[in-house]
Amino acid sequence: MYRLLFIMIVFSLNVMAQTAVPFDSPRWKISGQEAVRETHLGQPALRLKSGNALLADANFKNGVIEFDIALSKARYFPGIDFRMQDSANCEEYYLRPHQSGNPDAMQYTPVYNNMGGFQLYYGAGYNNRVELPFDRWLHIKMVVKEKEAEIFFDNGPEPVLYINRLDRAPAAGMISLANPWDAVAWYSNFVYTPGDAVTIKSSRKLPELPEGTITSWEVSTVFGEKQVEGRTKLQAADTASLRWKTLRADHNGITNVSLISAVTGEKNTVFVRKVIDSGTARVQKLQFGFSDKARVYLNGRLLYEGNDEFATRDYRFLGTVGYWDALYLPLQKGRNELLIALSEAFGGWGVKARLTD
Fold first, then answer.
1. Can you give the pTM of this predicted structure?
2. What are the tens digits of pLDDT across the range 323-356?
3. What is the DSSP letter of 322?
4. How far apart are CA 293 and CA 340, in angstroms?
5. What are the boundaries of the signal sequence (predicted)?
6. What is residue 17's predicted lDDT score, i.e. its pLDDT?
7. DSSP 77-127
8. How many contiguous H segments (helices) and E segments (strands) does the chain have?
């Protein structure tokens, strides 16, 4: 009896915590090229184009977010930012209507220093194949708990996306319905339920990193790419004025430079550095991937230069990061300094690498 009463009380508290926020509420801060309240497909809606609707007092960390969205047939990326700390730092989930039915029809990415990272966070746990409708409302339900989240469409029993690692440290923050693109999206029926009493049904353990993964790098301060253009050799003076921070790789082995650096003007490049101590002179294989450009130096000598920017290889090349390339490093006996100059355009700034014999 007491147990049943307790369950009923908890259930009623959860229901009470559910908050609907209509778009005529003063809680919303709405801006954009088109940000108009209207009726669309029979529902009261917010028409958004090149704008956003910010719920600054959401204080949302864990819980459930639900809303309806109606899409245009266009190439754009409407979605939602949550756990926002400020306009440049948040978790982000968005749709790609022009990729409906393809593996990248939706996307999760963390945003650090105003830089999203779809090129770093790609594949299982970040995007998924799904058909997106254009002639009706699509209901989206997001269940968020600590480092995991699930996305459900149209009250379906199974998630269309299981995010097996929300990259940012869990912290309560703002919510923004975001469509900063030149095509219209409509939002309706926004409801959120903050609280820890949610369950991630897809939860599972992350796989181990491959042996030899480089799990931390020293990262330099930012400088202009022109400083390394055409440089086949580096001198000590080229790095003497730089400051360095240690940055650990994530559960995928990716080191996301934007955690500690931001692109400002022409300053879009950092060095990542790893010291390799070798007992003998030998050759060691380095497998690596990067975004967007990389110049690999060993002991000051340029061994590799590559460009993996979006659409550089063909019109569908996304510039995603994996172990696509390999170098055979001629290590000398003793200390070896591996430097990679990483230059960013957009879509993710990072590297992953492993050393194998």
1. 0.92
2. 999 999 999 999 999 999 999 999 999 999 999 9
3. S
4. 10
5. 1-17
6. 80
7. --EEEEEEEETTEEEEEEE-GGGTTSTTSEEEEEEBTTB--TTTS-STTT-
8. 2, 23
